[in-house]
Amino acid sequence: MRVAIAGAGAVGRSIAGELLENGHEILLIDKAPTAISVERVPQAEWLLADACEITSLDEAALQRCNVVIAATGDDKVNLVVSLLAKTEYGVPRVVARVNNPKNEWLFNESWGVDVAVSTPRLMSALVEEAVSVGDLVRLLRFSHGDANLVELTLPEESALAGTQVGDVEWPQDTSLVTIIRGNRVLTPSREDSLEAGDELLFVAAQAREEQLEDLLSVRREDAAG
Q1: d(CA 10, CA 29)
Q2: Contacts of 140 (CB under 8 A, 6+ apart)
Q3: How far, in Å, CA of 198 to CA of 152, rounded?
């Protein structure tokens, strides 16, 4: 897979390193000469250019990329890169970094963004995920379909503890994608039973999140009554 990363700072280089280890072809783009540190990621291609300029993106052959990641520290730049990647070059997947949470509302399909990653929000979500039981935590927002990746740790008193996945009437527009149980990562089947303490990851429409949280958090005595 060919991936172009706009922004060769610490974030961009870290992403490049991870993707290179997984066998992907990486191009790092940055307009600042001081950011071009080939020795730090020698396996990547490097391009000294302004990723907001069509001529630069032509030189980068963006149309050959499967994914573009807008990872600069400037939200305006990330939006422009995302829009150009999607509308001018038809890149199938565009991921954009959100630096200021106040700008999150802009990072959607109107600007060509498929996935927006807000570092401050992600950090706070991971803190919540680590300490919250029975509360739905939003981990990641997907622009298409207004869907989110959400997590809930099933509380001890949940009425669904011991219930098979296939017997649960999940809300519409939600999908259970993973069960994390201790050190195990399970791909849920209809026959798998939910256990107290399971970390459940869903892709869910935002409008269904409250309904999903209510379903998972209902107490046994409430269900019995």
Answers
A1: 13
A2: 115, 117, 122, 148, 149
A3: 8
Q: Is 159 helix (H, G, I), strand (E, B) or coil?
A: coil
Q: In angstroms, rounded to a whole number, what is the distance separating the alpha carbons of residues 115 and 112?
A: 9
- Distance from the first to the final alpha carbon of the chain: 54
* 152 vs 131: CA distance, rounded Å: 11
Strands 174-181 and 147-153: unpaired
Mean pLDDT of the chain: 87
Q: Do the beta carbons of residue 203 and residue 142 sit within 8 Å?
A: yes
Q: Is the pTM of this model over 0.85?
A: no
Cα 76 from chain centroid (whole Å): 20
Q: State the Cα–Cα distance between residues 85 and 52, nearest whole angstrom.
A: 10
Q: What is the C-alpha R_g of the chain?
A: 21
Residue 159 corresponds to which tokens in the numbers above?
């009425």
Q: Which helix (H) or strand (E) holds 75?
A: helix 75-87
How far apart CA 153 and CA 137 sit, in angstroms, is 9
Q: Is 74 helix (H, G, I), strand (E, B) or coil?
A: coil
Tokens of 117: 């990653």
- Interatomic CA distance for residues 108 and 196, integer angstroms: 36
| CA distances in angstroms from 55 to 46, 49, 50, 67, listed in the order given | 16, 9, 9, 19
Nearest to 57, CA basis, from 35, 40, 80, 25? 80
**32-41: per-residue pLDDT in tens?**
999 998 999 9
